[in-house]
Amino acid sequence: MRLVIQRVKKADVSVGNQVVGSISQGVLILVAIAQEDKGEDVLKLAQKVLKLRILEDENQKMNLSVIDTNSNILLIPQFTLYAQTDHGNRPYFGAAAKPQKAKELFDLFTEQLKESGLTVETGEFGAHMQINAKLDGPVTIILDS
Q: Does the active-site annotation cover 78?
């Protein structure tokens, strides 16, 4: 599992002309599931996301988590994070999980984060999406299972 976490002032995701997910201050997370990922990988990274101290405290130090600040989360499924480009110029996505497995684990990840009581919005799995984000910092963190 690979996550690209970006701190945002606001973000939204649309499919066609319809906004399907929108948040105010919090984190935008691009989520990719690998072939070898299992439920325990999802649970581990969900807890890491909730406790990761990348939000600023009153002294502008990255010292607070999304739980501490009651921040919002926008999740975007993005298998292209597993692109392999070491042979030629066309990306190969063989390391990414097949769609059914990826959707199941993405949904599990979403539910784990929602259990925290935070607002969690998502993009649409398998859809062509447009993402608008006002990055904060910028702060971008990459996590792998």
A: yes
Selecting among 35, 80, 84, 130, the annotated active-site residue is: 80
Is the distance from CB of 2 to CB of 140 less than 8 angstroms?
no
Tell me, rounded to whole angstroms, the distance of Cα 41 from its chain centroid: 14
* pLDDT score at 77: 98
Active site residue 84: no
Burial of 69 (0-12, 13-18, 19+ CB in 10 A): middle
Distance CA 10, CA 23 (A): 6
> Residue 24's closest CA among 140, 134, 142?
134
Global pTM reads 0.96
Domains of the chain: 2-144 (3.50.80.10)
